[in-house]
Design a protein that fits this description.
By secondary structure, the protein is of the alpha/beta class. It is built from 14 helices and 16 strands. Homodimer.
Length: 423
């Protein structure tokens, strides 16, 4: 027997409840983002490697350790996208989208990072993404955060998640804070973890995000950003906080919160849960006013977030499975053609229909019951119009009667004299 082919480590096959939860998250996102006027955008799954190396920063873990990069047949270095923002910014610059003024964009799809697989973290994973490009006002930060909060609420998981909020200040604030952090951690470098020692030389703000036990006391004692805040940066953050309060979005100030990419400025935030172990962040984002300019575009303010579809799905209480309205079953081979015609008619009227490809009427009815369809419609081999069809609706989930009426309406008037019962 040939050896079975296995899927690549860190990937997943989605089916059944898993894909139902996945679809539920995406469908809810699409419904909510339309309420806020966010338009769908789609960009390539792979980009020139420079798109991510220039935007995310050479010292970030994603660029230095996690990107799936390869050389194509033309000798160009390409990378499977590890996040959405850089590709969307590349599209914004290349296509001249600044002509549209402020853009509110939404995306979803697969991303790729070479990380150690664990619960809620995969090497091919999926995210939702929301961006406001071209708006420098705190109100844009408030709206994009409020979008995330409403998504969590409509998924029914808002009570499982806490919004953590911080500011990284403007360029002047960040530079002064960085200098203070370097001085603090350098004075205690003998106690730092190996990873934090590397970050001290390359990206000291990331030490604040360390999970190493030996780093925690040093992180707790590290200088905060507020002491280095310019008046302009402080006023901006105050505007964001007041806006969130006005919008009814609760938050907790978390001074140690930083984002992993170099392009973040001002607002940084995460929606965090304690229900997924160490993979607690379900939505994370912030403001990145300097990114588009560093990629060769015009100076453009922007703010956005990304959310893990798998992680959100793991928090959803009940998977919403695909519901089938009715099963159409011929009671004899001679009724097969008419059953197919009736199924086609029902589907054209928006009624979902299950059909089986083999087996007698009893076996097909058993399969329909196993699939938990809302109703069964038997097509009989008879010339008597009054006995041509027999329909049975069931109180499966409180919607059986609605399905019963939908089927009757879809078949009217051709099969007006059908027999039917609603149990």
């Amino acid at each position: 027997m040939a050896e079975k082919i296995q899927r690549v480590r860190g990937t997943q096959d989605l089916f059944g409840d898993d894909i139902a939860r996945f679809d539920h998250v995406v469908e809810t996102f699409n419904r909510v983002r339309k309420l806020y006027g966010f338009r769908r955008v789609d960009t390539p799954i792979f980009e020139p490697t420079a798109v991510f190396a220039r935007s995310l920063g050479e010292t970030t873990d994603v660029v230095s350790k996690e990107m799936y990069s390869f050389e194509d047949r033309g000798g160009d270095s390409l990378t499977l996208r590890p996040e959405f923002t850089a590709g969307i910014c590349r599209a914004y610059i290349q296509n001249g989208w600044q002509q549209h003024g402020v853009l509110k964009l939404a995306a979803h799809g697969p991303l790729f990072r070479y990380e150690r697989p664990q619960k809620g973290r995969y090497r091919q994973f999926h995210q939702l993404d929301a961006e406001v490009i071209g708006a420098a006002e705190p109100a844009a930060d408030v709206e994009v955060i409020a979008l995330g909060a409403q998504l969590l609420s409509e998924l029914g998981i808002a009570d499982k998640v806490t919004l953590q909020l911080n500011t990284l200040g403007d360029a002047e604030t960040r530079a002064a804070w960085r200098e203070a952090l370097v001085a603090h951690f350098t004075a205690h470098q003998d106690a730092l973890s190996g990873e934090s020692l590397e970050r001290l030389a390359k990206n000291p703000l990331r030490i604040l995000d360390s999970k190493a036990e030996c780093d925690r006391p040093l992180v707790a004692a590290a200088p905060g950003i507020d002491a280095h805040m310019t008046s302009a940066a402080g006023a901006f953050f105050e505007g964001v906080q007041k806006g969130l309060q006005a919008a009814g979005v609760d938050f907790v100030r978390t001074t140690s919160l930083v984002r992993g990419f170099d392009y973040y400025r001002h607002t940084a935030f995460e929606f965090v849960t304690v229900h997924l172990g160490s993979q607690g962040t379900v939505i994370g984002g912030g403001r990145y006013d300097g990114l588009i300019e560093t990629m060769g575009g015009p100076s453009t303010p922007a703010v956005g977030w990304a959310a893990g579809i798998e992680r959100l799905g793991m928090l959803v209480a009940v998977a919403t499975t695909d519901e089938i309205d009715v099963a159409v079953i011929p009671d004899a081979p001679a009724a097969e053609s008419e059953a197919l015609a009736i199924a086609a008619r029902l589907r054209s009227q928006g009624v979902s229909v299950a059909t089986a490809y083999r087996g007698n009427a009893k076996r097909r009815a058993e399969l329909a019951a196993k699939d938990d369809v809302g109703a069964i419609l038997f097509v009989r081999d008879t010339q008597d119009a009054d006995q041509k069809l027999n329909f049975s609706g069931r109180k499966r989930d409180g919607k059986g009667k609605d399905r019963f009426q939908r089927v009757l309406s879809a078949l009217h008037p051709t099969y007006d004299a059908m027999g039917g019962t609603y149990e």
